[in-house]
Design goal:
7 strands, alpha/beta
């Protein structure tokens, strides 16, 4: 029933690893970033070295937990080399013995779920199965790589409304099955695609999908208890992909559309993982409980918690102050109020691109201020 979307099982690990080790495109991708000089002048040798390294590293991996342990080691290195501090809070807000559906804001393609997992792993809490859109899985080996690391597939590329509804029902059923039968934690982003403009808003359609599996006799409150939704707010001091996001947003504003380049997602994944992020914080919020009128009301409750628990950094406050000053003085060229790091990030951008970069950092401040007025 779920074989086309579920993560791989322990008994499938060795076969999938063998496929991945022999996948030439994967070898080339790793060589491109780990052995760039050798890859340029002796590509076959670089690929061979990568294959030997992979073969050596996976010889003691035989189950999903082994893979998770290896990923945790890699995340240790990533956090040490690409952040100036990783913190988390709120683990006391939920029962660790009951499977949770973590719904977080979405800023980075891979790291959002990975950092949630890292915090859980450090506290001996079972890691999540993470949702990944099939739009990122154009190649079979990429799908294999994700599914062997506890990811399940969200079908976003179906061509008809009927097919999309069928896929949504399957996904809703799978998530409920994983939580209640497999007793497995789940992670899913609050909406499709990253919040490139810095506005964290849950798509009510996501909540509607989750409720598709609810029978008519079950109340929304009871079904929410079964899902055990825990909002998660992830805050990055700096976004390694901010330049690219600003350029995309400026182009969309100017032309009404944006066409992705080949391998752009892979570049964003790599940049997001390896790029400097400053301080990073993950905040686990209170469970979403009680009776709600509809999906929009549930989505709003999730939004309120994510915004409330979003950690503001100097980058956010500096960008907010700069935009306010620019609006008041009609002078967006002045960057004297920006902290040094953010000032560097707006260099070599057009005025429109610079505006969007500042906007993505400032919007969490605007969101918090708007929420404070409502509350």
């Amino acid at each position: 029933m779920f074989d086309d979307i579920r993560p791989y099982r322990d008994d499938e690990v060795n076969h999938v690893l063998h496929k991945l080790i022999n996948e030439k495109e994967l070898q080339e991708s790793i060589a491109q970033f780990s052995l760039p000089f050798l890859k340029k002048y002796l590509p076959a040798v670089a690929n061979f070295i990568v294959k030997l390294s992979l073969t050596s590293r996976v010889k003691n991996i035989h189950c999903i937990n082994d893979i998770q342990a290896e990923v945790a080691k890699y995340l240790d290195k990533i956090i040490k080399t690409s952040t100036s501090g990783f913190t988390y809070s709120g683990l006391e807000n939920f029962d660790h013995t009951k499977p949770c559906l973590f719904i977080s804001n979405h800023r980075d393609i891979v790291l959002d779920a990975a950092l949630v997992n890292y915090a859980l792993h450090k506290n001996n809490i079972d890691t999540v199965e993470a949702a990944v859109g099939d739009n990122l899985l154009h190649k079979e080996w990429v799908a294999d790589l994700m599914r062997i690391n506890k990811s399940f597939i969200v079908k976003r590329s179906e061509k008809t409304k009927r097919a999309m509804l069928t896929a949504s029902k399957q996904l809703s059923s799978y998530i409920h099955h994983s939580l209640t039968e497999k007793k497995q934690n789940i992670w899913i982003a609050q909406k499709e695609g990253r919040a490139k403009d810095g506005i964290d808003k849950t798509n009510a359609a996501l909540i509607s999908m989750l409720l598709l599996n609810k029978n008519k006799e079950t109340s929304i409150a009871d079904y929410l208890c079964e899902l055990n939704i825990i909002p998660v707010s992830i805050s990055y001091e700096f976004d390694p992909c901010d330049h690219d996001k600003a350029k995309e947003l400026a182009q969309r504003q100017a032309t009404g559309s944006y066409q992705k380049h080949e391998n752009e997602d892979l570049k964003s994944i790599t940049q997001g993982i390896l790029g400097q992020k400053g301080k990073v914080h993950v905040s686990f919020c209170q469970p979403i409980q009680g009776e709600f009128e509809d999906s929009k009301a549930i989505a709003l409750a999730i939004d309120n918690q994510i915004i409330q628990h979003y950690k503001l950094y100097k980058s956010n406050l500096s960008a907010y102050e700069q935009l306010n000053n620019s609006n008041n003085s009609n002078n967006s060229n002045n960057t004297t109020n920006l902290n040094d790091a953010l000032s560097e990030r707006v260099q070599q951008l057009t005025q429109e691109q610079k505006h969007w970069l500042l906007t993505m950092y400032a919007n969490p401040v605007f969101s918090k201020k708007s929420l404070e007025q409502v509350l």
